[in-house]
Amino acid sequence: MTIHFFEIQNCTLLYNMGYPIFLAPDCADEELLAMRGFAKQNDGKWIRYVNQFEYGYIMQLRNSEEIIFNDETVKNISYSPIPYPTQFYGASPQENSNTATILCIISICLMLITVPILFTKAALFSGLSFIAAMVLMIIARVMYPKSTFAKILCIIYIFLAVILLVISIAAIITLYIACNECVNSLSSCS
Known about the structure:
Blueprint: E1 2-5, E2 8-16, E3 19-23, H1 30-35, E4 39-40, E5 46-49, H2 52-60, E6 66-69, H3 71-76, H4 97-112, H5 114-118, H6 124-143, H7 148-189
Parallel strand pairs: 1-6
Antiparallel strand pairs: 1-2, 2-3, 3-5, 4-5
């Protein structure tokens, strides 16, 4: 499909990382390109990003060999909502604070049952519960970055993880010292 964008003849419609763009021909006048909103790229090509209304006009005439943009056609462009290729943009999921809140609440519940389960015969499930709570918090934080609840929960969990690491290191050192004392006292008995 060839696009004539005002005085710039023989433009091509391409997609740059999912965004529709006009690619100007190599022989076009640079002053004219700059005046019409084209930008020169590092490789020397001139491109212009297509807005949603221009894209809608192109999609209406997509079976045509040539599409002409001029003052007359711009007046006839429909400015009603049109399908724009948003699936290419890697758009983040819609901010649904209810989902983020539910994920965080489930994560807190899993974290709270971690300690009581630790003192039962099913201590293995304590570790699984801790990991599940962390994973749900990470999912909430990544999928809904604007959620304040997920941000606060992330900070709390990082703090808890640091405390758990310090306690684990202290327990290992204490156990090592106790084992050394026991071996020393046993060797002095014989």
